[in-house]
Structures are given as structure tokens and as C-alpha cells.
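Work Package 3 (structural annotation) set out to generate three-dimensional models for the target panel prioritized at the project kickoff. During this period the team completed the workflow that converts sequence records into C-alpha cells, so that structures can be stored uniformly alongside our sequence database. As a representative example, we reproduce one entry of 157 residues exactly as it appears in the project archive.
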Amino acid sequence: MPKGEAFVGILDTGAEEPKSKALRYVISGIALVLLIAAGLWYLLRYTTEKHTVERFMDAVVVGDSQQAYQIWHPHSNFSYQDFIGFWGPNGYYSPIKSYRIETAEVPPKGGSGVVVVIEISGYSPFPKPEETIKFAQNREVQLWVERSDQSLSFPPP
């Protein structure tokens, strides 16, 4: 190779123009922002419904049945006695001393609400995963949270 000549390979390129470099950074930045926004939306999409269930379950755990019944926003066909039969101190799900929200999702057939799955326990604090065999009283409960008014009920069959 003669002196002063440089060897150029097939994949080597010349100097990049500043305008195309800046455009690439702008497009990459916009793509990153959109990706982060989509991720945040995915993580926070059912926050309101989960918060409603947390308020309800906190009231149930401390034994405030009146407050829990108000958060439930009962329909006329679900009396306070019906409610106590499920969530009261001697109700179907009792004793409830701790809980954990497992999932929240729109049902596969769609609908106007969100199904929030909670795991309830008769022990406080909530047992660790390795203790679930020892404390076999944990139960999984599905709650329907209506998006329009944040009322609670059991999911339709």
C-alpha cells in the first residue's frame, strides 16, 4: 500500500454528518420516553381499583364493618346482614387478620369493572411463601370493582 493511503473496509463508513447524528438521538430519545410511558401505564393501570380494595380490606381487618359496608357501596339486594355473613367476625371468610393483593385484571369476556384477586389470612402478619404450608388457612377471594363508582361485589359467574 503506498504511503499516505488508508485502507478502507467494506463495513467502514466515512464521517457522519452532524444533522443525521442529532436526528438519530432525537428519535432514540422519543422512543425511550414512549417505552417508559407505556411501562408506567402498564404498572399503574389498576391503581384506583387496588386502592379501593385496600381501603375495604383495611376496614375488614380492623373489624370496622360499617366502614367496610360503606366502601362496598351495596346494591339494594345485598343487605348489611348479607354483608356480615361474608365479611363479619363470624362470616364465611373470617377470621381475617391480614391480606395481600395478588392481581388485578379485566376479565377475558370484558366488562365495566376489574377483578381484583386477594389472598386473605387468619394470621398477622401475612405468612411468608415458605410458611404457607404451615399456615394453610390462606384463602383466595375475587372481588369485582366497578370502574364507574368504585363499588365492590363478587364477580359475575
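The mean pLDDT is 85.
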